[in-house]
């Protein structure tokens, strides 16, 4: 599987085009202007099969409407992500100056639960993991050696838990699941920034988990 990255403007999130046997999946089309991605797909004569969303935040979903309508494809995400797509408060579009409030829900949606957390696409197996914490709709998407982490796990930036549906308790559980489930050699393609391995960020995950533990303790003492 080949992975092409496009940086979504203006909020510098990553859109990934996954290619295999002339077919493609688009992950997180977060740019209103989808022409770069669409041109790339046309130039390489790719058939787009799905759009997958790591979560509902506006910088990851702004191009979904145009791309889904243009290619007539199904969109895969968590049920919570789809709920939040229709809510400008939850998808944060209401917060960003200059961004049009977004309440678009695609016509053809597939929840990760309805797939049983798994999709086999042209011989490539994807597994979907609910990783709430950064947002209620957050997921990670894994193949045998790659992990698309959305904003759940970034390389040098602490995971934000300031969205209306963020949860520090759930984020701690999500970090633990990632540590316990994937190999240190897994290559992580994050929602922002360049790829890294899980081994690279293990100390940073541990620091974040300790900070979350302290916050959770303090909340419980109140
Ligand atoms: Zn986000």
Largest sheet: 6 strands, mixed
Report the helical percentage.
Answer: 25-40%
Summed up, the helix count is 6
Report the average pLDDT across residues.
96
Envelope shape = globular
User: In CATH terms, what is the architecture?
Assistant: 4-Layer Sandwich
Any low-confidence stretches, pLDDT <50, length ≥5? none
Portion of residues in beta strands equals 25-35%
As for the number of domains, it is 1
Which cofactor or ligand species appear? zinc ion
- Widest sheet: strand ordering: 1-2-3-4-5-6
Secondary-structure map:
Blueprint: E1 2-8, E2 13-20, E3 23-27, H1 35-43, E4 47-52, H2 58-61, H3 64-71, E5 74-77, H4 79-85, E6 109-111, E7 118-121, E8 124-130, E9 139-142, E10 146-150, H5 168-181, E11 187-190, E12 196-197, H6 198-221
Parallel strand pairs: 3-4, 4-5, 5-6, 10-11
Antiparallel strand pairs: 1-2, 2-3, 7-8, 8-9, 9-10, 11-12
Helix pairs in contact: 5-6
The structure holds zinc ion (ZN).
The site of zinc ion has 5 residues, from loops.
